[in-house]
Amino acid sequence: MADDKVHPTATEMDYPAHFRNYDGFTRLFKYGAVAAFVIAMVVMYVIYN
């Protein structure tokens, strides 16, 4: 237990493992929105014709 000392200047974001890359999420959100729009247009076309 004596070796469990935390470095006095360490913060949560000092570690590379905590770096988050949101490129995948934004790409999924953009293409998901486009796909949802296209599907909605097809569904509306089918309903109204």
Could you describe the 3D structure shown?
With about 50 residues, the protein is mainly α. It is about 55% helix and about 0% strand. The protein contains 1 helix and no strands. It has one helix at about 25-49. It is rod-shaped and about 65 Å long. The termini are far apart. The model has no long low-confidence stretch (mean pLDDT about 80).
Biggest sheet architecture? none
Shape: rod-shaped
Distance between the termini: 73 Å
Number of helical regions: 1
Helix content: 40-55%
Mean pLDDT over the full residue set:
79
Rg (C-alpha, Å): 23 Å
Percent of residues in β-strands: under 5%
Number of strands: 0
Low-confidence stretches: none
The SSE order reads H
